From TrEMBL:
<dbReference type="GO" id="GO:0005789">
    <property type="term" value="C:endoplasmic reticulum membrane"/>
</dbReference>
<keyword id="KW-0812">Transmembrane</keyword>
<feature type="transmembrane region" description="Helical">
    <location>
        <begin position="29"/>
        <end position="50"/>
    </location>
</feature>
<keyword id="KW-0443">Lipid metabolism</keyword>
<keyword id="KW-0560">Oxidoreductase</keyword>
<keyword id="KW-0444">Lipid biosynthesis</keyword>
<feature type="domain" description="Fatty acid desaturase">
    <location>
        <begin position="62"/>
        <end position="249"/>
    </location>
</feature>
<dbReference type="InterPro" id="IPR005804">
    <property type="entry name" value="FA_desaturase_dom"/>
</dbReference>
<feature type="transmembrane region" description="Helical">
    <location>
        <begin position="195"/>
        <end position="215"/>
    </location>
</feature>
<keyword id="KW-0276">Fatty acid metabolism</keyword>
<protein>
    <submittedName>
        <fullName>Terminal desaturase</fullName>
    </submittedName>
</protein>
<keyword id="KW-0408">Iron</keyword>
<keyword id="KW-0275">Fatty acid biosynthesis</keyword>
<dbReference type="InterPro" id="IPR001522">
    <property type="entry name" value="FADS-1_CS"/>
</dbReference>
<dbReference type="Pfam" id="PF00487">
    <property type="entry name" value="FA_desaturase"/>
</dbReference>
<feature type="transmembrane region" description="Helical">
    <location>
        <begin position="57"/>
        <end position="79"/>
    </location>
</feature>
<dbReference type="InterPro" id="IPR015876">
    <property type="entry name" value="Acyl-CoA_DS"/>
</dbReference>
């Protein structure tokens, strides 16, 4: 059963969360990170080539399965559970999500949660680790290649973190060894397809920080950079409804309607809620959403929203139709 949160953030409350605005800055490159990221991406490109030339089909399917599990580990675990506490999870689900998140290996859960809470509290300012006002490349991956801004360091020290890290070799070693042991894949193929899967997970997650802060519509809050980006939502299993998420970060769906076919993460959480492993799922009432859209949205509301006879299925269908219109324009 989901719990509806009736609280609607006022402009005054929202302004209190704003940090210092971005200014000119000389970047200090971390060359070790630059070399590591360059190798990862070159190895991933080679892994993609091997998928079409010599890799076994079982290895490709195995890599894709790990990609899905790892991405949900980030979206349902590090993001919706530990960063925002949009729902509660019993121990078996917590362990499962920690393992899945480790396959993605985007630093420890503690680091991920700290950076993400900074991103929300000081969104698109100097205290935001991946400040989108500094451009696509910086918000996508550049922030990991340079020294942290002093505001990020200062504000990061006061963030409250409650998470249990689980870091291990399961991101690289097991995904490489399993294909070699069980279906005699070569080390070259197994390793480079592991790198392909890993880099895909990284870049898809990074798109939420970059593309979803630069392109899309803003029906909930036109004053912020985060936007509704359908393409990012598909790639990240529901994380691209970003204008909604920044307006209502406590909603476990990260989207107004759930949009189950574009939001695999919500489906995942709903399934475990059904079997009792997830509970206290938080959502936002339709009235609160409507008031926020009328007060701060850019006017791109869904057609027929006020029609009391419109079913939930019709509303969800309108999301896809609206996305197609935006794409054509």
């Amino acid at each position: 059963m989901a719990t509806r949160i009736e609280h609607d953030i006022t402009e005054e409350e929202n302004n209190k969360l704003k940090g210092p605005q971005a200014g000119p800055r000389v970047f200090q490159i971390v060359y070790r990170n630059l070399v590591v990221f360059a190798y990862w991406h070159l190895a991933a490109i080679y892994g993609l080539y091997l998928c079409f030339t010599s890799a076994k089909f079982a290895t490709i399917i195995f890599g894709f399965t790990l990609y899905v599990l790892a991405e949900i580990g980030v979206t349902a675990g590090a993001h919706r559970l530990w960063s925002h506490k949009t729902y509660k999870a019993k121990l078996p689900l917590q362990i499962l999500l920690m393992v899945m998140n480790t396959v993605a290996f985007q630093n420890s859960i503690i680091d991920w949660v700290r950076d993400h809470r900074l991103h929300h509290k000081y969104s698109d300012t100097d205290a935001d680790p991946h400040n989108a006002t500094r451009g696509f490349f910086y918000s996508h991956v550049g922030w990991l290649l340079v020294r942290k801004h002093e505001e990020v360091k200062k504000k990061g020290k006061v963030m409250d973190i409650y998470a249990i890290p689980f870091i291990g070799a399961v991101c690289f070693v097991l995904p490489t060894v399993i294909p070699m042991y069980f279906w005699s894949e070569t080390l070259k193929n197994a390793w480079h397809i592991t790198m392909l899967r890993y880099v895909m997970n990284l870049n898809v997650t990074f798109l939420v920080n970059s593309a979803a802060h630069l392109w899309g519509y803003k029906p909930y809050d036109k004053s912020i950079l985060p936007a509704q980006n359908i393409t990012v939502s598909v790639a990240t299993f529901g994380e691209g409804f970003h204008n909604y998420h920044h307006a209502f970060p406590w909603d476990y769906r990260t989207a107004e309607l759930g949009n189950q076919y574009l939001n695999l993460t919500a489906v995942f959480i709903d399934f475990f809620a059904m079997i009792g492993w997830a509970y206290d799922l938080k959502t936002v009432s339709e009235d609160t959403i409507k008031r926020r859209k009328e007060r701060t949205g850019d006017g791109t509301n869904l057609w027929g929203w006020d029609d009391k006879d419109l079913s939930r299925e019709d509303k969800e269908g309108a999301v896809v139709l609206y996305a197609e219109v935006i794409k054509e324009e």
